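hey so i finally got around to running the thing on that chain from the lab meeting. sorry it took forever, my laptop kept dying and i had to restart like 3 times. anyway pasting the input first so we r on the same page abt which one it is
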Amino acid sequence: MTQDDKTRETVEIYNRYYTVVGRESPSHVRLVASQVDQKMREIHDANQHLTSTELAVLTAVNTMSDYMKLKEEYAALLGSLNKKEDK
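ok and heres what got predicted. didnt touch it at all, straight out
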């Protein structure tokens, strides 16, 4: 990946600004940032005593848990489809 292939997008997450560099479209980066911000605020509403670092780690753990569940569901769905094709 060359520097020319990358885009830069500045986003706000939990009242802080971050510049995200990558190949994704600016709209995708803004959507992801919005989802992270929303998750952090949800967790903060339930646990207002958390530091920013604790909040960020819990957000990452929750997000990874959701991702792993979706990945497992996707694998199970693919397995079901493959079984139907084999019949």
